Amino acid sequence: MRRPETLAAWLAYLETLHPKAIALGLDRVRAVHAKLDAPVACPVVTVTGTNGKGSTCALLEAILRRAGYRVGLYASPHLLRYNERVRIDGMDADDSALCQAFTRIDAARGDNSLTYFEFGTLAALELFHEARVEVAVLEVGLGGRLDAVNTVDADAALVVSIGIDHVDWLGADRDSIGYEKAGIYRPGRPAICADPDPPRRLIDHAKGIGALLQRIGRDYGFIRTGPTWRWWSAEIRLDGLPPPALAGDHQIGNAAAALATLASLRDRLPVPPTAIHAGLLEASLPGRFQIFPGPVEWILDVAHNPQGAAVLAGNLRARPCSGRTLAILGLLADKDASGVIQALAGTIDEGYAVTLAGSRGRPGADLAAVLRAVGIRATTADHILEGCRAARAAAAPGDRIVVLGSFLTVAPVLAARPWFSDISLSHSREV
Question: Domains of the chain, with CATH numbers?
């Protein structure tokens, strides 16, 4: 078979290689990675968490780059372009580099039917090796223990948060999910946990393998000091830190976790306070409480589980508006719609329930029924931008519109910017 020549063709091809979109396990990835002979010969930071891992990775990247390091960042999923998943020295990987990496992996894999995510993970590792990055930051896709990212031994591993999500793969309780996420920890290496109430199995696993567990509130922490904040550990104290550029009060907790991770590697990756200050102020990540001001304010947030929705609700309460809050909500079928909407109750005045495209999308009519069950007036829309136009037509100056529920909900809105002009649905791009 002739191999694809464009990135779009490669991505379409990758979706056909494995019978399941998600197939956890490390054997296939390890076998192919060994054949490629492209180790990541630099310190590796691996980050997982039910929520917050994307923001924390963005903070790590910004601070490390400000400290002068050539950083490789692997993150997922993407919002607008696949290239966003692989960043080297602050730049998204270009189509040609990704295609060349995919070609080498396809030649090396033999009979291994890698998933789309596994293929992408190996491509990121290939490109990091080729670029000789000085530190690699790897965001786990799902769970931790059996995620393709975990084929690399982390020099420092961070679990940002533990909530209920992806129960079909990780288990239905925090104890089981915590154990899966603790699978990124390694014996004798820093193992940071930023969840204030870590499950027993996470603690026991870290202890059992001899990982150097560091917990928030015990081994490190933070204190707000007026407009600034302080970070502390047993050996270090940093005063007068600026709030992160990422919007939302919860981002200080993510920043504190990033600083704990960096402090654990300070002998190998020293980072001066000036780099910390600058990195905090420069970190950016689209789709996480991303605010577009105007007579009608728009807020985009990929929150898609009850824990993420609770954080979003807290951010909305901390940023009250003079008018109503209208929500455009689209969720995948495997998400806890009732839990998400319950978490938002009291912060949303009216809902526009949209149907996401594809077999995994939940019908808008189902979401509307759940919204109404908690007393939120709801209407439905067949397309995301249709919901946007309906909400914008109903909004008055002083109101705000919140788009949430999935990367698949936020991405077409971010691409089309429907608050700037009348966008035709036929010209919109739902990803």
Answer: 7-282 (3.40.1190.10), 290-427 (3.90.190.20)
